[in-house]
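<purpose> Linking amino acid order to shape
<body> The protein record starts here
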Amino acid sequence: MEAFNIPATPSLMKEFLRQTGGAAVIDGGLATELERHGADLNDPLWSAKCLLTSPHLIRSVHLDYLEAGADIIITASYQATIQGFEAKGFSREQSESLLKKSVEIAIEARQMYYEGCSKSSGVGIGDGKVLKKRPILVAASVGSYGAYLADGSEYSGNYGDAMTVKALKEFHCRRVQVLAEAGPDLIAFETVPNKIEAQAYAELLEEEHLKIPAWFTFNSKDGINVVSGDSLHQCVSIAESCKQVVAVGINCTPPRFIHDLILAIKKVTTKPIVIYPNSGERYDADRKEWVQNTGVKDEDFISYVSKWYEVGASLLGGCCRTTPNTIKAIYKTLSHRSPATPKQKL
């Protein structure tokens, strides 16, 4: 974010957090909100389908989250892969263009938000919206290989014995290059389910000389290990040793596990800890739907947030099935933050 003199270097996140008062708010679930706006996501491309059919809805959801107080918005590229688009009949060039589009839409939403702030006389919350000039980062989402398979294996981490770090690097390489070139502030490697994929991402960042910061977030189903059963300690150590990784943490994991996972991560890393759990609902991979009444209510989710911040998380938001209302409540919970004065105004 040049307007706030935040460098696109390994120091990005620490400078960003300095300007946001030590904690920052991440956005919430994308697919749930797109469906609420009328999108049909019954497709292997999932939310990435809207890059083809309704980019305006993606922009609207990004704006909803910015107006709810999010300081970081994550692009609609979690399930967007070159291989996935090509399977739909798109050329390599068209596939790369769609990846770039996911970043462009988020950047457009940020600019529209800033324009809205300029027109608003106040700062803070007006008409239920947070209209406040502040540093905002665009994080380009990279979902796991399991997300591309669209069979729920990002929730198991089971890619089979034949899968290797080398094969995963080949799968992700061009996609990560295209996203990095599109101009986001960082890459969000999300829902990382196993150690070999974390290793593949770390090697890609270093070997391809990608001059962009990144975060790694893992998912867990037992509150101890990542979903594959691999050691969380080992996975976080990979992120800790990669200079371009500027934050590490957990996403798409039930809230009840987060407190202990933060404590475990703190033992391994000195980097900012990023936390954006799902609502706690269980996903049925066979039926490709969330099981109703298996999650926590917004008020229960929010009751955890202060505790997560107190024990060490500095980037907090929501993942699947969380909404702008969830994010607005997180924003209010963290409203005690005292941002440093930006060196340069928008």
About this structure: The CA atoms of residues 145 and 216 lie 14 Å apart.
